[in-house]
Design goal:
257 residues, 2 domains, 5-stranded mixed beta sheet, 39% helix, 11% strand, globular
Length: 257
Amino acid sequence: MTDAPTHDVVDGVEPVLEDVVGWRRHLHRHPELSFEERETAAYIADALAGFGEALEVERPAENSVVAHLRTGRPGPVVALRADIDALPIDEQSGVDFASENAGVMHACGHDGHTAMLLGAARLLTEARDRLPGGEIRFLFQPAEELAPGGARDLVAAGAVEGVDFIYGCHLWTPLEYGKVAAVPGAFMAASDFFTPADVEWSARTAAQRAFEREHFDGVGQRATTDDFLGAIASAKPTLTREMIDVFQSETEQFRRV
């Protein structure tokens, strides 16, 4: 395998910019909730099918889309992943491509993630003969916003079998335009389940990160989490009283952050 950097393989992103904007605005107009992304997945599959026969498109799990770009030469399998679901939010943005589905909105940027990955798929498919080798696999994952999430079904269907590396990104408005950020370890929020045994570690970790991050609003974060845990405690006090006590004790020293 050659050491040619990927940025020399494609001839810039300008050829797909207009399409990426169009894809994103279409998806923004037609958002679908987690586990309900039927039209979204069909739209993605149709777009991928238009990129040529070199791209093998499949639907391994419900509302998911996976595309394989095989070079036919030795090399690693690199997966690029985007999430495709929207949130139960009533859009009031006033833009001319606002959601047409009442009570549903792409408020977390997944329309952008999907459009970006479609753009990458088209550019890399057109440049297949110039790729170093191996396979690029494009994963369009449903139900990121709702636990247990659609990733589990994709994995169970074999979508990541043989993958050596997997990359994803998330749009984040606080980041200055034109910049990309990366950090070691976990980053951003996620839907999940938790038990009382989990909370002591989670609360201590949250408190430590509040202290370590210069611009982290520890007071606001604590207030939000207290409200959230308090609401749960109202419904199930025997389960969550310990959770609240642990969180408050671990964050007490960081109230001035």
